[in-house]
Amino acid sequence: MTAKYDLTINKGSNFEFWLQYQREDNTPVDMSSYTAKMVVKRFKGQEYPILFMTTTGITYGYSSGNTLGIAGTGDINLNTNYDGTGITGGISINIAANTTKELSSGSHFYDLNLMIGITYSQKLLEGKIFIQDGSS
């Protein structure tokens, strides 16, 4: 079942979000065989994302004229705690200030998916993501 959670990013500030993925009995899920991706779009069904993150990096600035995006600074880390130490089931999402300042302000949509190889994908989290000018 996909959880729903809204996020806020302040342009020009570091964005950090941490959660722990657990089974129904509250035991953490070991994600050593998983990768993850997070996609942010202006609206559901949009062809080009405004932000694409994986466990290996981040890109932004997609358009019909730029289908490869622009390399940004940030990533998703699995089996990690909010402080970078190891913890089973931990998911840490980080976007550096030099990347958040380039994002389009407004209300957008995102989803976070866990994957094993190319054959299995599970949408773990989705919601609105508010990108606002300045830090609060």
Summed up:
With 136 residues, this protein is an all-beta fold. Helices cover 3% and strands 51% of the residues.
Task: List the SSEs and their pairings.
Elements: E1 3-4, E2 7-10, E3 15-20, E4 35-41, E5 51-54, E6 57-60, E7 70-71, E8 74-80, E9 86-95, H1 97-100, E10 106-116, E11 120-132
Parallel strand pairs: 1-11, 2-11
Antiparallel strand pairs: 3-9, 4-5, 4-10, 5-6, 6-7, 8-9, 10-11
Kindly state the percentage of residues in helix: under 10%
> Which homologous superfamily in CATH is the superfamily?
Immunoglobulins
Number of helices: 1
- Mean pLDDT over all positions: 91
Number of domains: 1
CATH fold node name: Immunoglobulin-like
User: Beta fraction of the residues?
Assistant: over 45%
- Main beta-sheet annotation: 8 strands, mixed
Q: H/E order of the elements?
A: EEEEEEEEEHEE
Q: What structural category characterises the helix and strand content? A: mainly beta
* C-alpha termini separation: 32 Å
How many strand elements?
A: 11
| CATH C-level name | Mainly Beta
In terms of quaternary structure, the protein is: single chain
Uncertain ranges = none
By CATH, the architecture is named: Sandwich
**Which outline best applies?**
globular
**Radius of gyration over C-alpha positions, nearest whole angstrom:** 15 Å
Describe the fold and architecture.
The protein is mainly β. The protein has one domain (3-132): Immunoglobulin-like (Sandwich), CATH 2.60.40. Helix content is 3%, strand content 51%. The protein has one helix spanning 97-100, and strands at 3-4, 7-10, 15-20, 35-41, 51-54, 57-60, 70-71, 74-80, 86-95, 106-116, 120-132. The strands form 2 sheets. Strands 1, 2, 4, 5, 6, 7, 10 and 11 form an 8-stranded mixed β-sheet that branches. Strands 3-9-8 form a 3-stranded antiparallel β-sheet. A hairpin with a 3-residue loop joins strand 10 (106-116) and strand 11 (120-132). The termini are far apart.
